[in-house]
What does this fold into?
Amino acid sequence: MNLKEKEKEFILQTYKRLPVEVDHTDGVYVYGKDGKKYLDFFGGIAVNALGYNDTRVKAAIINQVNRYMHMSNIFYMDVQIELAELICKLSGYSKIFFTNSGTEAVEAAIKLSRRWGSKENKVKLFALTNSFHGRTMGALSLTDRPKYRHGYEPFLPSVDHITFNNVSELREKIDSKTAAVFIEFVQGEGGVNVVSKEFVEELFALRDKHKFLVVADEIQAGIYRTGRFFAFEHYGVHPDLITVAKPLGGSLPLGGLLVDSKYVDVLDYGAHGTTFGGNPVSCAAGLATLNDLSENNIGEHVTVVGGYLKQRLLEFQTKHPDFISEIRGMGLMIGAECKTDCGDFVNQLLSNGVLVNCTNGNVIRILPPLVIQQEHVDVFMSAFQKTFFDVHSATSKDFAGGLAN
Ligand code: PLP
It folds into this structure.
């Protein structure tokens, strides 16, 4: 059996995999077992902020593996506490609860919101249409993507959705029984949709009036992805809870719930817990990653290189308005909305040596490592242009795949 056949034989078929058997990785490149080379503009779904094989991260992991790999959360682990201190310092939030993943960070936020609201009978939770907050049953109750929800009913009670950017619906649905509103300031999975300033202003005005928690889901857009530490910083607001994950563990599994000082006592001893959350090896990798990103002013770099990428894509769109209807996003979280399904385009782009993803059917989602340089954008744009001509001419379908070494 070859690898593809074995995967089919032994793993539940929940993933539609790309036709790449990974051999190794380096910097911002992935190398297939067949020797082909791919420029990674997807970054393990926004996880690999420093690209692959970062020396400092690897050294931190090895050092921690030699010390201890798992202890459980009944011990004091210096590396976990140091990461907590650093992320609190960088974010301006008071405390964190560590999890293994994004969806678990959302679960922690749901539990904190419900427990906080229970005293005043505030039970309602809201999320926006087209949102993605994860796939465990609590998080999935907030996620508004039919393809992920189908067949899993019933969901958590007292959860509802507000149409994305619809201010009047927001005003109608929110009231004094609201415990929390979950919001991605830039929706990732939903198609790189940027929430409007007007919607955000109204949301925070309603928070002042009705006293509920605003939970910023920064799992994909957070940690410098949009050029600021958090995407909500572009709006000048202060959410109450923040969920983080993806790059937090420096490519290893780690998530967290950051909590504003007002709510740090809601979850007390025994109120929540996890065996693996805050694993010391993940924390060591995360600490090295966050130190590296912050010391190198990565936010400014992301703004500059992301601006260049967006500009190049906008120029392309101007030339090909029948293919791309909109370029949107911030920093290095960019979506190119196509007039039709973009699956074939993304597959052909892969053949031309570049990894991206097609989300929500017709949005090409671009989430490169935060350390890409202008030259990588140029390689990306050449492949993008070539792919456009490949897909729009029937002649060049049998390209060998990968970039020239
Ligand atoms: N929230 C957002 C905004 C996400 O993008 C994701 C994952 O893509 C999640 C939650 C769930 O995170 P995880 O897959 O780590 O459980």
User: Anything to note?
Assistant: The domain at 3-53+298-396 is CATH 3.90.1150.10 (Aspartate Aminotransferase, domain 1). Confidence is low (pLDDT under 50) at residues 394-400.
